[in-house]
Structure formats: C-alpha cells, structure tokens
Specification:
The protein is built from 10 helices and 6 strands; from the N terminus they run E-H-H-H-H-H-E-H-E-H-H-E-H-E-E-H. The chain is an alpha/beta fold. The relative contact order is 0.16.
Length: 225
C-alpha cells in the first residue's frame, strides 16, 4: 500500500522546457543589448561554462547556480561581473512568470491528501528556487516535505537523495511512489533503493519493460486504486 507519493518538479509539475526557452530568450536579448554579445556566441559560451563548472564542482546542486555561471561567463568576456546579478534575476523572474502548473497537478494532490497520503518532493536544484516554484504553481500547501539536491548534497539519481526521501516519508521504501519525467533520475533512481516509481511521459514515449508509465498526473489516482 502506498503511503507517500513524491514528485519531481521540473518538467513534471510544470513545463521547465517551455518556461526556460522564454527565460533564456530574455537573457539573449540582454546579452546583445548590454554586453554586445550575439545570441550564437552567448549560447556557446553558456554551454561551455556550464560544462566547465560541472567538471570542477562535480554532481552537486551548485552546478545549477546561475549566478555563479553568469559570473564566470562575464569573467571570460572581460565584462563587469555586476551584470551577473541582473542576469540571474532576469532569468529566474522570467521563468517563474511563465511557469504554469501541469494539468491535473492540483487535482491529483488534493485527492491524495483526501486519501491521507503524504506528499513529498524529490528534486535537483537549490531549495529556495524550488520552493519559489511550488508557490508560483500554487501547490505549496499540499507538500509535507521536500528533499533537494542542495540538502542531500548530491544529485539524482544518487541513492543518497532517495534514501533521504524515504527517511522523511517515515515509511518503508516499498510504500513510497516516486513520480517524475526522467527515466534515469526519477524512475531508475528510486527503484534502486526499493521505492516504487512511475514515469511521467505525456508525449507517450514507449516505456521499457516493467516500467510503470503515466501520461497524465491524474493517472496516479487510478494507479493507486
């Protein structure tokens, strides 16, 4: 019997891809207007800097810190690093402005709460930004606990993050269901520590054998019976 359902946030409770596209477009415009850097050059440098920081820092939440990323980009461009503050706020404010909850998210969580099921979050990224996303999406009141990669000091699919999820759920791993869009991070990760998992794949990709797949968040309610 499932006593706790845990959700990923990005591309599960809202479309990160759509919101990111608009936020990054705002950055490109800023770079061209204030830094004299073309969209192509900025995009290339952004990708290179992200890889450099990942190699330097390892598999930790800090690799998502865009303030550090933009600071390093500006250093490479020999531009004043104070632009990083504006760029960071511009990116996240734009992304949050365009973050729309996935259809059925609130309905599903409300019904889970009615059934007495605990709701948790298991997410990469820093705690502050992920909590801001939950508030923006209007879902924060349903959440009983959250594990971020910042708190776990490691990124999904590392077992330590999911073990902390189980610890906070205060029930055996087999009584926890994890729901997310990444097959590697949100399905294979929790399965490795004995949790149940459901792959949220709204574009109806074929699921590997023995993998539970849902195409709507409300399918969780049917899955639980």
């Amino acid at each position: 019997m499932i006593k706790t359902v845990l959700f990923d946030i990005d591309n599960t409770l809202y479309s990160y891809d759509k919101a990111h596209k608009l936020a990054f477009a705002a950055l490109l415009d800023y770079a061209e207007t204030h830094l004299g850097v073309t969209a192509q050059a900025f995009t290339l440098l952004h990708r290179e800097t992200q890889q450099q920081l990942k190699s330097r820092m390892g598999n930790v939440s800090t690799i998502h810190n865009r303030l550090i990323r933009y600071q390093n980009m500006l250093e490479s461009l020999h531009q004043p690093i104070y632009h990083a503050l504006t760029m960071n706020d511009l990116y996240w404010n734009t992304l949050l402005q365009h973050a729309v909850p996935t259809e059925g998210a609130a309905q599903t969580m409300a019904e889970l709460k009615r059934r007495g099921i605990t709701i948790g979050i298991g997410t990469d990224m820093t705690a502050r930004l992920q909590l801001q996303k939950l508030r923006t999406l209007g879902l924060e009141s349903y959440i009983d606990f959250m594990v971020s990669s910042e708190e776990a000091q490691t990124e999904k699919p590392d077992a330590d993050l999911f073990c902390l999820c189980v610890q906070k759920a205060a029930c055996p791993p087999e009584e926890c269901l994890f729901v997310g869009d990444s097959l590697k991070k949100d399905v294979l990760g929790p399965l490795s520590v004995g949790m149940k998992a459901a792959w949220f794949s709204p574009d109806d990709q074929n699921a590997p054998e023995d993998i539970i797949k849902i195409i709507r968040l409300t399918d969780i309610l049917t899955l639980l019976g």
